[in-house]
Amino acid sequence: MIELVPNLHSHSMGPDFLGQESSYEVRSNERTFSLPDDDTFVDGRNSHYFKFLMKKYKRHIGEMDGNSVCSGGLQQFLIKQQERKKRTEQNEDSQQQSKFECLPIDVRLHIFAYLTAKELCVVSRVCRSWYDITEDNLLWSELLTRDVHKWTTMGHNTNPAMYKEVSSEMSNKEIYLSCSPEVKTLQRQQNDVFSNISTILRYFLPKKTPLFAMFGPGLETKTSGLVRRIISESDFEQIGMFPGKFDGVGGGFTLRDPAGCQFNLSVMYSATQRDRESSNRDRDHTHRLMKENKGSTDINKFELVPAVQDFCKTVDGFIYVVDASADFPVVEIGLNELQAMVSERWSATHVPVLILSAVQTQETSRVSCFEVVERLQLSQLNRPWQVQNCDIESRDGILTGLTWLEAQSRRKYHL
Known about the structure:
The chain is α/β, with parallel strands linked by helices. Helices cover 39% and strands 15% of the residues.
């Protein structure tokens, strides 16, 4: 506690006492400083600051003659000075904010349009006015249109077009946050504890090694090195092989992922290597896994050969590989093959489909996930599906896609 009190010892107690000018002492818990009227300071240390502080204090609490004194006033004075400084800073911030609020709403929306989705969610907490701007439906519509082509993955429940087709009552902001891969990643990180508990519980449940069938035109183009990368040059450990059961169809490799989960992988090519390398090959009509079904509808124009049909009944997940290079003529070149393989006639609707949208390197120009979804008409599939970007050189995205497929395929056993 700091006190400023009259220095009575410096004056006589005669009748002229009340008319005399008083000097003062500043008392604290540790030291006492005397300050006479002429502002001389007996302690030379910090004298300049102390004298300046005392003058301000006298002006603040006293009359013009400076004789008014209050106990503990110096401490209160310092507190009030700090509060005054804080109010001044708040007023300056308020003035700056009011200048922004004076801008036309179109200008403010244009400024906010340069922000990312994460930044919009952050600034929405500044004040009510900014929150209202960040809720603008047109703002999120433009953001969704801009960012959807940058997403590296898209699934049956994270496809923005699905919400448009069913005329959902959700706002564009809600659609964006429901579909964004970045938001999904943050949600998984927040649910790590629950995920770890679920993994422990699954350990005690009966296990079945899932069987995945890999096929598609991407196995026959510049991205054909994907199989070699997965089997011998990736994070997966090859622990065995298994033979085909249906006239030689269905043989493959048993692999273990970094988490210790095993799965069987069967790679199915549409023709022999010599036929695949032919430049003038009609892929659909020289396909050894399917044949044309004359007189049928367009969706059932091709059907699988009997041995492949029997094999597909045992498959727990499909991997469709497509070459997503921008210079590749058509992504949908294997659309008939995809529709024939995942037909409900020999594959249950709970069996998931992973579409690996592959390119050779990260620098290769590619078709976006969103465009792959549209070209392959994936929204018409009545089963779980997911498109995952990946590149052959760095193997980026391969583990992520196969992890999703494995988790999705096990649900039919544990849920």
